[in-house]
Amino acid sequence: MEFAATERLDLTTVPVTPVDAFRCRVLDRVAEGWRVLALFTLPGDAGGRELCCLMGRDHDGQLSFLRTAPLTAYPSLTPECPQCHLFEREIYEQWGIMPTGHPWLKPVRFTGCPARPDTPRPAPGVTEYFQVRGEQVHEVAVGPVHAGIIEPGHFRFQCFGEEVIHLEIGLGFQHRGIEAALAGGPDRRTVHFMETAAGDTTIGHCLAHAAVLETLTGLTAPARGRAIGRIALELERLANHTGDIGALAGDVGYLPTMSFCGRIRGDFLNCTGVVCGNRFGRGLVRPGGTAWDLGQPEIEELSRRVADAGRAVLGAAAILFISSTALARFEGTGRLCAETARDIGLVGPPARACGLPRDARHSFPLPGAGAKDIPMQLNDSGDVQARGLVRRLEVEASLDFIAGALADLPAGPVRAALPDALPPHSLAVGLVEGWRGEIRHVAATDADGKFAAYKIIDPSFHNWFGLALALRGQQVSDFPLCNKSFNLSYCGHDL
Amino acid sequence: MNALTHIVAALVLAPLIPGIINRVKARMAGRVGRPLLQTYYDLAKLIQKGVVVSHTATWMLAAGPAVSLAAVGCALLLLPGPASPAPVSFTGDFMLAAYCLGLSRLALILAALDTGSSFEGMGASREAAFSALAEPVLFLSFLVLAVGAPEISLSGMLGRGLTGVLAPERLFVPLILFIVLLTENCRIPVDDPTTHLELTMIHEVMVLDHSGPDMAFIVYGAALKLWFFAALTVLAVLPVRSLSPAAGWAAFLAGMLLVTVAIGLVESVMARLRLMRVPRLLGGAGALAALSLVLTVWR
């Protein structure tokens, strides 16, 4: 069933598709250029779980939703449609629904499965890993405890000398059970779970959640609230892209840009602080608009600060991208081709760096936002250089957008009160282009208008696998650089 | 007495060099930077700490840093000061100096392999590969310096300045020695001493398992080694022997400061080389050294 991204879907009108037809339709649509946005389960009759697939088409922003009857096994989609591989592993881990024929059915978050009480919960990180054998092949294992202060993740490299033959990434150490805690909501805690789903993407996840609730209730945030939310989203992008450009410089040992960007990132975070008093935007975006308004003095202060920091970051990026020694490290490192990126469902700047025009701001604009407000930045070489350049260009585009939006902020209230009750048996989708890529929230309500299931898909969910593929044939010493060029979230993946 | 002045100066002042490098880097990046004496503070702190030893490690882990430091100290004994020959000097002593440094590295490599960690093995293999490439370059530059020297020892070869016809080939030598310095001391563009990323490290990853006084030995040994190569570079250029002792010392210290600042500037303005490109840098330096030798002898 097809519907627009900003429409509420009445689940009682969605027919049940037989498993075989479900599989055929998903594969056909993928072949036609649709993307699998989410593969998840909803509670069905008699305590079973039905398999649901949400797909999206980029060029016209249409969504498609398919569901099956409750099931316990189905033929895996992964062999024909690799972008489903992690969804299928996740569903098997959470609900014990077996994707028959899945090539590598490992735990995703090591949660254990309530549907299979006889199998003990695995210890985090303890599972099979792909192994390469040979005289000079060696295995390097990094993490989950790292030498720097970063989040926990486990990386297994199969190396031939310095060359990486295969990298396998084990995550799940940060699993907090957010999706399970959201079921039965929304309640007072819900929005705080959104703010901390991935702490550096507070605005992005809050906006996606707001979009879900607004779609469910059929209300739209007032123009001023929406504009402030979008300004905050771009500020978040600016701060993180600045940090990433600096980190790329730091990883190749190019100190000036690293040091400058470290400071300028703080300047952008402080700009968000001007809006709502919190540098990461906690407490700013709420369903129905924003909790804070901007007065004229703040608007002027913000414009001045953003312009100053913007000039500084473009200068810092300029000296990095003309430094021949830095470019020698960036060019050709960690290359992903567009075909691979399309197959695994890559999103965000890494996908755009492969030449895939995927940007939720264009394909699925929020109500009240224009699809062409912020130009999409593409590159086609797919390497670290391209990912860095896309970020630099997006910094420029975001700066332009913020300057324009601040100069022309709509008048009126910033927040509309949403009704307490949500419509029963409905499904709504929130798609927001966060700085890391497309953030997807899918909520379905039960007969009481409470969340029967709430699915959060952080861009890191797909992109971690992209990182693993980008590293094939690279030198193991280039891993940190490739990793930084993706800069993925551990907690956003682990939820 | 005079002969020992340089040793004492090296032992006391060597930890200042990393401090100055870091200050230069910080200033270039618009930061204030850590105190100039930070390495001394670090050493004082490390020496007071306890040692954590992995239960898979043997005595080699503890012996490595001590042997390494002692070997660098021996190499320093062979290096002449600005106003006097070295305390120990004999024909061919440059071989001993080079292999004292080699022994120092070997001790650390064995200690790294002893831990059984895949990282440290990786770091050790990189360190061994790059130092094996740096060694012939160092010997070629020694040979250039030896041409026309009154005796074939470090004391005889160094401190004479660029004697004879000031031909370009002689100016190569300090440049080549500077590249060897950057390689041997794990500076950018070969290694990044400030990185926290295990997989890109060379020297730092080898010493991950060391702590407390052992780590202090390693840090101090690294500072002494840096002093050795900086002094070698300075003494290859400046005719300090022909000056009065006071002027010689002043010129030497100024030269050391200049080399230190140059290291800081190199680290500030360029990125690290891709690991697989490092052999090309050393190969280039080696070719330059060979060219320099041929031209020097020919003239």
Automatic annotation (TrEMBL), chain A:
Signal sequence extent = none
Q: Name one GO molecular function term.
A: quinone binding
Residues annotated as domain NADH-quinone oxidoreductase subunit D: 251-424
The NADH:ubiquinone oxidoreductase 30kDa subunit domain, residue ranges: 73-120
Q: Does the keyword NADP apply?
A: no
Q: Which UniProt keywords apply?
A: NAD, Oxidoreductase
Please list the coiled coil stretches. none
- A single Pfam family it belongs to is Complex1_30kDa
The domain of life is Bacteria
Tell whether Flavoprotein is among the UniProt keywords.
no
Concerning PANTHER family, the annotation shows: FORMATE HYDROGENLYASE SUBUNIT 5-RELATED, HYDROGENASE-4 COMPONENT G
The identity of this protein, by name, is Hydrogenase
What is the species of this protein?
Solidesulfovibrio aerotolerans
Q: What is the lineage of its organism?
A: Bacteria, Pseudomonadati, Thermodesulfobacteriota, Desulfovibrionia, Desulfovibrionales
Automatic annotation (TrEMBL), chain B:
* Source species, domain of life: Bacteria
Q: Which UniProt keywords apply?
A: Membrane, Transmembrane, Transmembrane helix
Q: Name one GO cellular component term.
A: plasma membrane
Q: Methyltransferase among the record's keywords? A: no
According to its UniProt record, where is this protein located? Membrane
Q: Where are the transmembrane segments?
A: 6-24, 59-79, 94-116, 128-149, 161-182, 217-240, 246-266, 278-298
Identify the main location. Answer: membrane
> In the UniProt record, does the keyword Transmembrane helix occur?
yes
Which InterPro entries does the UniProt entry name for this protein?
ComplexI_Subunit1, NADH_UbQ_OxRdtase_su1/FPO
List the membrane topology term(s).
Answer: Multi-pass membrane protein
User: Which protein is depicted?
Assistant: Hydrogenase
Annotated source species: Solidesulfovibrio aerotolerans
